[in-house]
Amino acid sequence: MCADIKRGLIITIDGPAGAGKSTVGRHLAQRLSYIYLDTGALYRAVAFKVLQEGISPESEDDISELCGKIKVHLENRQGGLRVFVDEQDVTENLRTEQIGLLASRVSAISVVRKFLLPVQQGMGAKGRIVAEGRDMGTVVFPDADVKFFLDAGLGERIRRRYEELARAGKKGDYPKVERDLIKRDSQDRERSVAPLKIPDNAVIIDSTNISVSEVVEKMMSVIMDYDRFCVRR
Ligand code: DC
User: Fold this and answer.
1) How far apart are CA 67 and CA 11, in angstroms?
2) Which residues are near ligand 1 (CB < 6 Å)?
3) What confidence score (pLDDT) does residue 1 get?
4) Count of domains forming the chain
């Protein structure tokens, strides 16, 4: 189905933790010279602030109050996407397991999702964007031109997360990485607001046994078909 396109394309990638969305999203955006929007970083920035301010993750009131006080935004700079809370660049503080789990918890609070919705939609207003997260094709960009759902087997996702941590010098023990990932999966899929699910019309790609560049090639061929049939008619 073709949308009435008066802007650049919006491409969404949804999927569970460890499926490879960030890596693939970054490469795909580079290939297309599009903006890359890592929406998980926005939830992580709120989580970082919750932790920094000593707010209890149980207290929705305090977290709502926090959202009323802070501004979160992303800037595409040479060398990648930077995340700001107010004027503070928090990018380097976000990629820990603790922040990931906390982000998953705060992302279940509807005030937090409402707070971050215009930030995400604003970045996509002109199109030419690859947006990656848990509710991209379902809630944030329901009219996206091309939607992907990137998945991978649980064992492979655990292995990737473990290696990612090891590369970052934060080698955890394997059973803990496994427990954290399973917990995050269930929090993200079972929450009542904007749960992780496969968007209607999404192209599902299982990356368990294929490389990043193969995933990107598959995506490029879907996007080129869309471009041929819908944009250059
Ligand atoms: O992709 P990530 O690991 O950086 O995301 C961290 C958490 O943020 C994830 O467990 C759930 C939440 N999240 C979300 O609810 N919706 C998004 N669009 C992106 C992330």
Assistant:
1) 28
2) 17, 39-40, 43-44, 100, 103-104, 107, 133-135, 184, 188
3) 56
4) 1
| Structural domain includes residue 231 | no
Q: How far is the CA of 104 from the centre of ligand 1 (A)?
A: 6
Positions in the chain short of pLDDT 70? 1-6, 232-233
State the residue range of the domain holding 99.
10-226
Looking at residue 96, the DSSP 8-state letter turns out to be S
Ligand 1: which of 39, 98, 113 to mutate, most ligand atoms within 8 Å of CB?
39
Cα of first residue to Cα of last residue in the chain, in angstroms, is 13
Torsion angle (degrees, nearest 10) of CA 212, 231, 194, 205: -30
In a domain, 233, yes or no: no
Domain CATH number, residue 156: 3.40.50.300
Residue 70: predicted pLDDT: 97
With the most atoms of ligand 1 within 8 angstroms of its CB, the residue from 107, 112, 190 to mutate is: 107
Q: What is the pTM of this model?
A: 0.93
